[in-house]
Design goal:
Alpha-Beta Plaits; homodimer; six-stranded parallel sheet; 3 domains; Rossmann fold; ten-stranded mixed sheet; alpha/beta; about 35% helix; Dihydrodipicolinate Reductase, domain 2
């Protein structure tokens, strides 16, 4: 028997309690011992909810109880989650969390504290919801040197882009309906400005490459500027626009970025639609692998947290392996030398200039959509961003420019 | 330091040796100790190959060496692999294998021997090549009650079906070119008659449902009878034909079967093409998850075997959890009550009879392809196989009948 406490009885916390109750027999069998929730911490009361019998409003009940060996931190946000987590680890309690903000911001320090106190800090649910990507990296794909990890790591933006593609609707309208359906927050910035997937790819890159990647160092561009017209051009070309979060090893070092990309139909993330998330991994022996699943939601996220709880029970008194094991920060390489093709929309007036500066032979293929009379689009050769900007100076206006993957 | 031996220096064995050499530093870090290959067993000699220095022709060298704690069995076939594996386990050596024939045939007995001798029998590479599906089930999706697992588990047949779809070529011609490319064996029966995916789904179902599923109990139908015309109808309807291997819990018990199915574009396995494999899993908390990767090939398979070796090193002296833990066999439920739609091709002469027996209103939608003048196709309502057969008795001939997924 091992005793656990849950910090926070919100969407994920109530899911965790529910998963532990619903699948109790299987979970105990897999954990090798019975897991009992001794406390649930929340400031609120929940009359008539079965959680009431283990509810506490005081964190000190938990931290001072030596019987509690596993603490589930599903409060979200930095404070007081950071302080609570550190204190739990220092007291020799394992901590399992879904809190991507905290892991991205203070993961390095908390991993160190866990190591010093011979306990585990698990955070499977911080990336990709129910997709077991962190455990896949730490425990499954162990024979490989992973050189790239690229994901669709945010369900809200993938839902918005999918709806825009399928219905031809504009960004604002789809965002509004996503908010009404509960797929987007009232303040949607973390999703649509892509801070959320930037945090997640920082965490995954830290595991893959061993040293901490600071999400603030990652070039991050959201989907706010993607228009129905951009998507129209993409589908005309047979492509999809996806918000990709990527980290890869290059001769210049590890590069990471989050941005919308044009993805061709043979790309493994092309078929990932709606609120689904997926992570593509390339290993030097394995080749390509893709992990797909629900990126959010109470029960899928709770499923990942409970898998951590089971692993904590299995590793009671022992440290589990985690690829994110070095104390230094990883300095990301500049992507200044990366050459890519771009889909560029310009005014019809600039077509001559485009031919001049982007096609050495002066015969650029021009895409012209019937309903957009005043503009044309074209695909550039492979260029660095700097080179693109220099050449685009002569245009009256660049309506939009989207990178090819 | 932990010492290992490799039984068999063929395609997979040489891959295992190569992966262990190429990624040595990372592998030792992840294993928590150095892994050294002390012996490679093969009847042949390999002059000028670095393996020569650890090569032996005598299994007794390995079984009698108490230093050897991990044995990699990648010989394939039942004999002498079965005998060697049993003796290794009895001697307290962990065994890691890619041998699906052996696991499907004698897995139950070998698991028991491993348990009795407090060692591990790992077989990640037996299903889905490089896809870490077994470890995902045993160590990652541990919070879930899995009620369905469905896979494209054979790269050869998926390659053949994909080629037939993309090029419109007939089965025999594609099989021949697959053989020339090395994607199909000279005797292709295990693949195209689907014994291979039947073995794999039996292994996966044994892990998911806890008790041994005998592959010989699984209804198994290969792709030999699928024609270019069948595929033409499927693509006209927007569907793909995929060889699916599935096991699912139903109110009648666990059902399992392997057969070609019509798969619609929203199905998670629809986009899996060529030699890729993929496994779809449904968990009661997680919902849908899909794992995709290379289903075969020397290095991807070796990558999975080496992940087992690392896990064996991590569990040195300890037993790892495996869902396949009960000693009894699982009696599969009959699928006699399952109702499905079928795509049926008949002679144009039988169109009237089809309308009479398959459409209560007498208005069956008929699909008629221009180039196939003497036949028509239609989609039945949902029927049991028995009901279908009874109604189809009045036809002169059923040209083909393919199940909808």
């Amino acid at each position: 028997m091992i005793k656990a406490a849950i910090l926070g009885y919100g969407t994920v916390g109530s899911g965790v309690y529910s998963v532990l109750e619903s699948n109790k027999r299987l979970i105990n069998e897999r954990a090798g011992q019975e897991i009992e929730v001794k406390y649930v911490l929340d400031l609120r009361d929940f009359p008539d909810d079965p959680v009431e019998k283990v509810l506490t409003h005081d964190f000190e009940d938990i931290i001072n109880d030596p019987e509690v060996k596993i603490v589930v931190e599903v409060m979200g946000g930095i404070n007081p989650a950071f302080d609570f987590t550190r204190r739990c680890l220092e007291e020799g309690k394992n901590v399992c969390t879904s809190n991507k903000e905290l892991v991205a911001e203070h993961g390095l320090e908390l991993m160190k504290t866990a190591r010093e106190n011979d306990v585990n800090y698990f955070f499977e649910a911080s990336c990709g919801g129910g997709i077991p990507i962190i455990r896949a990296l730490n425990d499954c794909l162990t024979a490989d040197d992973i050189d790239e990890i690229t994901g669709i790591l945010n369900g809200t933006t993938n839902y918005i882009l999918t709806e825009m593609t399928e219905k031809g609707t504009g960004f604002s309208k789809v965002l509004k309906s996503a908010q009404e359906l509960g797929y987007a927050e009232r303040d949607p910035s973390a999703d649509i400005d892509a801070f959320d997937p930037a945090r997640k790819i920082a965490i995954l890159a830290s595991i893959v490459f061993g040293s901490s990647v600071d999400y603030k160092d990652i070039y991050t561009e959201g989907i706010r500027k993607i228009s129905a017209e951009d998507i129209k051009y993409a589908t005309t070309l047979g492509y999809a626009i996806k918000l990709l979060a990527t980290a890869k090893r290059t001769p210049d070092g590890v590069m990471a970025y989050v941005a919308p990309f044009l993805v061709d139909p043979t790309h493994p993330l092309f078929p990932i639609n709606g609120v689904m998330n997926a992570v593509y991994v390339h290993g030097n022996m394995l080749g390509d692998a893709v992990f797909t699943g629900a990126g959010a939601g109470s029960l899928p996220t709770a499923s990942a947290v409970v898998a951590d709880v089971i692993d904590a029970a299995r590793h009671d008194g022992k440290r589990a392996y985690c690829g994110w094991r070095h104390d230094e920060k990883l300095a990301l390489a500049s992507s200044g030398n990366v050459k890519r093709k771009y889909l560029v929309r310009i005014s019809t007036e600039d077509e001559g200039e485009a031919n001049k500066v982007f096609s050495p032979e002066g015969f650029l293929d021009i895409i012209s959509l019937g309903e957009l009379e005043e503009e044309v689009a074209f695909i550039t050769p492979e260029l660095t961003e700097e080179d693109f900007e220099a050449r685009a100076k002569g245009f009256g206006k660049v309506i939009s420019r989207i990178r090819f993957c």
